[in-house]
Design a protein that fits this description.
This protein is α/β, with parallel strands linked by helices and about 450 residues long. Helices cover about 35% and strands about 20% of the residues. The protein is globular, with a radius of gyration of 22 Å.
Length: about 450
Amino acid sequence: MKNSRRKFLRNATTSAIGASFAKTAFGMEASSYGKIIGANDRINVAIAGLGRRLGAFYEPIAAKASNARLLYLCDVMKSQRERAAEKFSEHIKHKAQLENDFRKVLDDPEVDVLINATPDHWHAPMAFLAMQAGKHVYLEKPVSHNPHESELLVAFQKKYGKQVQMGTQQRSSPETIEVINEIHNGAIGDVYRAIAFYSNARGEVVKPVKKAPPEGLDWELFQGPAPRRDYTHDTWNYNWHWYGWDYGTAETGNNATHELDVARWALQVKYPKYVFVEAGKRHFKDDGWTMYDTMDATLMFTDNKVINWEGRSRNGHKTFGSGRGTIIYGSEGSVYVDRGGYKMYDRSGKMTKDSESVTSEAGTALGGGGGMSTLHVQNFFEAIRGNEELKQPIEQGVISQHLTHLPNIAYRVGKPLEVDTETGRIYDRDAMKLWKREYEPGWEPPKL
């Protein structure tokens, strides 16, 4: 345990800010110091963004084995904070402090970890500030709003030396780990193609009409780094996903991230050489949804490897038998894998092996959480203590995220993309204009 404590403290003090925090901690009375580290390396946690992913964090924070303490529940919506406090009261005995402004949370030296489950446009900017403030970060997908932010995430992590785990929880699924290892060991021969898919029956959404922000919402802070605009009805409550590119990354950034990550993991590829996309809005054509709701994307890699993405946001037909998953094809067979486990087939189509998941995890229903999320968060905690390696470190996570940014960019410019397979950068000048986004003055990423 002494060795574990030394590793924990070493990780917590790798940056100048981290060193300052350590100095503050060591200058405290023993009782205060115990609240930070605890008798057995307790980790103090804050959660920012208390929406539909909140349920993923009850169990890993409350579990005795995690030795974690929830200090803050932070959200720009008052009702979200109050609901989160009520929900957590069913799992933990103490009361976390409720906070509107995440910057106040980051100012607290007792906070070791920020779990960032905010809307997409806040993911990377808040992570930058958290690392700068000496915090480790559990970062939900998409980890970035654009490719430039992905580059910055890696640069900030290297500078501050913090543990940054991407929230692609299937990386911690024992069954997925098992079958990917078998694939890499040749169980289905030479792998050459993966189909990643997602089907949901999302309904009609209201048209965004100018309206006063709902009571309890800090609309200014919700917008944060995004360009300023008047509030429109129901934008804050999940529909920001579909109301343009200021806040969301469409369904590809929202859900393709998980399946494309599994596909890339199985095929052992990095950046594609070519990206082809066909996408459009196919359902409820007069409603408020402004993004595509249907996409077919083809990403072609070197060594004749291909990943196909099939996204159906508003057609719930289960083409492959479930709402989401990945199919991997090899020269001697194939594998179907999703959050429920996997099935392996030989070249004739006969099933040779299957494994049902011992954990449960939300699929296409709004919200999320389950055994995979718990394992993934606990892996993050143990990586902070120096006892484990991260299952999805940010330098790998951003590569998978890039496989969502490229189809989105191809859709927006209306043409295929040719990509540098080493850097992921696009050769087309028009497409590269979407490599970054405009930030509200005063909210630009910190200088490295």
